[in-house]
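Build the 3D complex.
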Amino acid sequence: MEFPDLVKLAVPVFLLLILIEFAAWRLTGRGRYETRDTAASLIMGMGSEIIPHLGGLAFLSGVWATVYNFRLFEIPNTWWAVLLCFVLDDFRYYWLHRIAHERRLFWATHVVHHSSQHYNLSTALRQTWTGAVLNGIIFKTPLVFLGFHPAMLAFVFGFNLIYQFWIHTEMIGRMGPFEILFNTPSHHRVHHATNPKYLDANYAGTFIIWDKLFGTFAPEDDAEKPRYGIVKNLGSFNPLVIAYNEWIGLFKDLAAAKSLREMIGYTFGPPGWSPDGSRLTSAKIKDRWARIKAASPAE
Amino acid sequence: MGPGLITELAFSVLGAAIVVVVTWLFGALKSARVTPQAASDRLAFDEPDFAAGEWMIGADGKSAAVVSADARETAVVFVLGDGLGTRRFRRGAVSLERDGAELTFRINEPSLGAVSIMARNDAEAEQWVLRLAGARL
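Done.
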């Protein structure tokens, strides 16, 4: 069974759909586009496709080829195996994504995707330049060890990425029963929102059921419009800044750390962790919001 | 990186460039304007427990500063494209420079080196330097 590179094939469709969404925004006023933001997202997207080819992908392929030689099961390249691989890979994605939000080392790569204050199809392409190897080794290798061929894994992940493209839009409202099982624009708007009530929710790739099973699901509330970005929005459209801003912050913190405990806290603690608790983590932002809400019940 | 990949990259660059040019041609290159309403709305969202005192809205509409009601903290609001961002810091934690009517906060972050705010005149800028330094005016 041959596994085509789905993402490569999808790129022209992505760009065409962005143009269609942009035209729809101009005609209806629904959604929001800004030229520099879109340019930055597209450059990040291109970088994320090119940079792994500078050595990371070869290294990852080598690791997976080695691990595949020691696989636990002989899984054939059949349709049911592809389906099973897709579901397991989506489960794997849920946990990677959740950890990427909850642990700063992984947030440093993933923050790129959340760094836009816009939520449109171009935002879907705003991808990290630094996550492929680390995330690939830690989170995908177990599936290779189980016996899924690396090419099959790449194929299903490509499909997952394509699925996640179309949900980055404000053009589509609610989707009825489809929302019970699948991730949708509404669910994913919540994920990209910085409103305290929406923080750290809806990590799903394709199947929203993982969030429902593990207690991270939050529905979109019509009374609270999502505001996108990160809790401390960037002050630049420079792709290098977008790619490395959080890494620089992490290394600065590590350089200033006074103990091993602090170094571990900065690296593996939640984003916003600090030894004296002076910075804001998601949990603290939610607490602050709850306190303010409790103090003004009329709102 | 083989020739196939370079060809694909060239097509991607071309496609992305077309998208960017189209958005520019059809009016998506926009800059937000910092108004009192926009600045206080953004700050209230980002820092809901910041009790804002007096505001200084930049004369060019590109930035603003506000001292907290207890004068212990300062927040700045800045423009990024058609959106706004904020930073909040304890008084004295960020260096402040004045050049004529222009006040500059040295934020020193990779994504935000400084935020400059244009006062209406030198006297107003000087008054704000004192206010931001904690003097009671």
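The mean pLDDT of chain A is 95.
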